[in-house]
């Protein structure tokens, strides 16, 4: 299958799941995760109407941003962020979804070039306290949200979550429902939050069932990544 075919299939799936769970397809944004794949793949996806792309490795991503300068792409950074990469990210990305520490927020705010719009920010949440997973704990989350709200060069958009892998729809949905509950609760204090970024190739249906409004799809669009780059 070509990238165009795979995108078509993902769109059909999103539409079916929206239908199944009484949601509107236009309320579920599709982010194509192009990490590890060449810019030629991005061009193919763009030709099929995809304009939002997610990248996880700063150096690699910045090269692709440069190679795709002629395309009207909205770039999302979704990978772990080291302090020494914040400048590259602040200069090249429209969204950063993987913020999990105050220091990173402060650096992104300070390093965003003044001629660019504020960076759209999602805070990555670790809901399930897994030691090895990225994300801020629920206890520290409000402090990060407040800091983001107060930063002139950042715009708070919402939350991003990668829950632990589960095999069944029911288990996946339980986790997503929990996240959705917390998102709705936090929106009372931070009403500007409009983005709940959750759902990947293997848990798309459950994410849509629970209320995700941005899904991040890599494998189902571009195929398998190399073994060293999961
Ligand atoms: C790689 C990645 C994805 C895409 O995962 P697939 O299973 O390939 O769809 C989504 N979100 C994040 C944060 C990722 O790192």
In short:
This protein has helices at residues 3-20, 39-47, 58-67, 86-92, 102-111, 141-149, 169-187, 204-210, 219-222, and strands at 29-33, 52-55, 74-77, 95-99, 119-124, 154-160, 195-197, 214-217. The chain is of the alpha/beta class and 230 residues long.
- Report the helical percentage: 40-55%
Distance between the termini: 21 Å
Could you give a short account of the major beta sheet?
8 strands, parallel
SS-derived structural category? alpha/beta
Topology pattern, helix = H, strand = E: HEHEHEHEHEHEHEHEH
How would the global form be characterised? globular
Descriptive keywords:
alpha/beta, 230 residues, 40% helix, binds pyridoxal-5'-phosphate, globular
Question: What can you tell me about this protein's structure?
Answer:
There is one protein chain. This protein is of the alpha/beta class. Helices cover 40% and strands 17% of the residues. It contains nine helices and eight strands. An eight-stranded parallel beta sheet has the order 7-6-5-4-3-2-1-8. Helix 4 crosses helix 5. It is globular. Bound molecules: pyridoxal-5'-phosphate. Pyridoxal-5'-phosphate binds next to strand 8 and helix 9.
How do the strands and helices of this protein lay out in sequence?
Blueprint: H1 3-20, E1 29-33, H2 39-47, E2 52-55, H3 58-67, E3 74-77, H4 86-92, E4 95-99, H5 102-111, E5 119-124, H6 141-149, E6 154-160, H7 169-187, E7 195-197, H8 204-210, E8 214-217, H9 219-222
Parallel strand pairs: 1-2, 1-8, 2-3, 3-4, 4-5, 5-6, 6-7
Helix pairs in contact: 1-8, 4-5, 7-8
The structure holds pyridoxal-5'-phosphate.
